[in-house]
Structure formats: structure tokens, C-alpha cells
Design a protein that fits this description.
anti-sigma factor antagonist activity; 4 helices; MlaB-like_STAS; alpha/beta; 116 residues; five-stranded mixed sheet; STAS_dom_sf
Length: 116
């Protein structure tokens, strides 16, 4: 099976908030790309980082571990993380791993913004 390299795109969601659109396969191999995207979002002063998984194709345990690393980095900066665009399968994985207790799950970026 060919692995599609993940790409991360950062966009502003207004003052104090940024979105990171995650496309492709989320594995440990894309850690540098995600951490760079987080750095870029943080540089804008974002205290809410919305991870948009709507273009994600696949995530393995290495990708879950990478999200935990991102969560720790965000907590050190007093940032909140939210996730949108997860399929039912990945929502269930977030719940089973209890990631949903630290990364809030929302249907849209607007609902993530409204919950802050």
C-alpha cells in the first residue's frame, strides 16, 4: 500500500484562533510537518487550534502518539485543541483512547469557536 505524505495547511479563524487542515496519512512520519504547522499557528497568537481532519485519509497509532505530543506542546502554551472533520471511525478511536477528553470534538470550526 502506498503511503500518501500528509500535508498541513494553516489558516486563521480570526483573532486568537487558527485551523490546521491535515490531509493525507497521519503517521509518525509527518510529525515534523505537524509541529511546524503548530509553530506557525502559534506564531499568530492562537490560543485555540482547530485540527481539521476532513481531508485525512488514514491515521495509525504513530499518528495518535504524535497528537499526544502536540497536545503537550499546546498545553505548555496555554492553548486549547479542538478537532473537526473526523469520520465516525476516528471519532470512536478518539473516544477509546480518551483523546476526546483533551481535544474537544466538534462538527464544524464555527462550533469549535463558539465553545471557547
Amino acid at each position: 500500500m502506498a503511503v500518501s505524505a500528509a500535508t498541513m495547511t494553516v489558516a486563521s479563524l480570526g483573532p486568537g484562533a487558527a485551523r490546521i487542515v491535515i490531509a493525507g496519512d497521519v503517521t509518525a512520519a509527518c510529525e515534523q510537518a505537524l509541529m511546524s504547522a503548530h509553530e506557525k499557528a502559534s506564531d499568530t497568537g492562537a490560543k485555540l487550534i482547530v485540527l481539521d481532519f476532513s481531508e485525512m485519509e488514514y491515521m495509525n497509532s504513530g499518528g495518535i502518539g504524535m497528537l499526544v505530543t502536540l497536545l503537550v506542546r499546546g498545553q505548555r502554551r496555554q492553548q486549547r485543541l479542538a478537532a473537526i472533520g473526523l469520520t465516525d471511525h476516528y471519532r470512536q478511536i478518539f473516544e477509546l483512547t480518551r483523546l476526546d477528553e483533551a481535544i474537544t470534538l466538534h462538527d464544524t470550526a464555527e462550533s469549535a469557536l463558539a465553545a471557547r
